[in-house]
Amino acid sequence: HVQLVESGGGSVQAGGSLRLRCEASGYSDSCGCMGWFRLAPGKEREGVAAIVGDGTTTYADSVKGRFTISQDNDKKNLFLQMNSLEVDDTAMYFCAAGDRVVFGYWYERRRYNYWGQGTQVTVS
Question: How close are the terminal C-alpha atoms of the chain, in Å?
Answer without folding.
Answer: 37
